[in-house]
Amino acid sequence: MIIQETLEELMIQINTVRHLMISTGLQKGLNDYETLKYSEELDKLINKYQLVTWPCHPKTT
Questions:
Q1: Do 24 and 42 meet the contact criterion of CB atoms below 8 Å apart?
Q2: pTM value?
Q3: What is the DSSP track for 11-47?
């Protein structure tokens, strides 16, 4: 299934960027430009994952 493969690829990207962010943060510090860039990229990937996986909320009137 294409959607499942896409979700798996997205999870791989999330985990890869998470590991890069953590290792960069430990080596260069949490306020380093590279660490912050990985953090921003991770935020975007997690947001994308949540948009795809969270069910739609019913509209309230």
A1: no
A2: 0.81
A3: HHHHHHHHHHHHHHHHHH-TTSHHHHHHHHHHHHHHH
Q: Count Cα neighbours of 17 within 13 Å in the Cβ-side half-sphere.
A: 18
From residue 23, give the alpha-carbon distance in Å to each of 34, 48, 53.
11, 23, 28
pLDDT by residue (tens digit) across 14-52? 999 999 999 999 999 999 999 999 999 999 999 999 988
Q: How far apart are CA 33 and CA 55, in angstroms?
A: 35
| 58 SS3 class | coil
Report the distance separating Cα 61 and Cα 59, nearest Å.
7
One-letter identity of residue 60: T
Dmax (CA) of the chain:
51
